[in-house]
Amino acid sequence: MHCLLATKGQKIGSLISIICLALSLSSGCATIIRGPTQAVAISSEPNGADILVDGSLVGTTPSNIDLARGRDHLITFEKDGFHTRNIPVIKSIGRAVFGNLLYGGFLGWGVDATSGAQYNLNPETLVVQLIPLDEEEPSEEDQNESTTFITRLNELDQMRESNRISEEEYSRMRLSVLEQYYPEGSQ
Predict the structure, then answer these.
(1) Taking phi first (over 0 means left), then psi (-120 to 50 degrees means alpha), and beta for anything else, what does residue 138 get?
(2) Where are the alpha helices (DSSP H) in the chain?
(3) Whether the Cβ atoms of residue 73 and residue 87 lie closer than 8 Å to each other
(4) For 135, which DSSP code?
(5) Which residue, 53, 10, 39, is CA-closest to 154?
(6) 8 A C-beta contact, residue 117 and residue 28
(7) Under DSSP, is residue 144 helix (H, G, I), strand (E, B) or coil?
(8) What SS3 state is found at 26?
(9) 10 Å Cβ neighbour count for 130?
């Protein structure tokens, strides 16, 4: 009977070890450490501008806003008496991806890719000088270009997610859009 209990105890211990190992491998490193959102500090001069993220009102300046890491965003600043400003915030692959591939393998990387935790958002801080309506307006072309830029990036994401383009095509097309609309961010 004593041998039977020891065997059951060993089996339970082994089972617990296996479960713990499986759970640790099923989570991505960046997902655990950083999470699927990133706080972005947003302010304006003057303060009190409405902040819209992807068209939805989320607060007023100054503020820290949690943004999903796995997508690109368009931040819009609106304040009575001032011109509206649109600023893109784009995702880029974080360094944690490479460590995750080494230690967590493709399973850990897959978790991070699915949650969006593998990305960093840039810029991390937005400080916008709002221009009064009676002063020269930022060119409408520049404002529309920011909107078009983010729309094109999000369309590429949708095409990749629905398997209409390969990962290689996605990377090539995304780089092309970045070079066209945001050359300083494509380096």
Answers:
(1) beta
(2) 2-25, 29-33, 96-103, 105-115, 140-161, 167-181
(3) no
(4) S
(5) 53
(6) yes
(7) helix
(8) coil
(9) 21
Give the integer Cα–Cα distance in Å for 63 and 51: 9
Q: What's the token pair of residue 185?
A: 């961010």
Amino acid occupying residue 146: S
pLDDT in tens, 53-67: 999 999 999 999 999
pLDDT tens track for 62-120: 999 999 988 899 999 999 999 999 999 998 875 554 444 444 444 444 444 444 456 88
- The answer to whether residues 111 and 27 touch, using CB atoms and an 8 Å cutoff, is yes
Q: What span, in angstroms and rounded, lies between the C-alpha atoms of 93 and 117?
A: 9
pTM (global) more than 0.70: no
Q: In this structure, what token pair is assigned to residue 50?
A: 């409405």
Counting Cα atoms < 13 Å in the Cβ hemisphere of 174 gives: 24
What lies within 8 Å, CB to CB, of 147 at 6+ separation is 74, 86
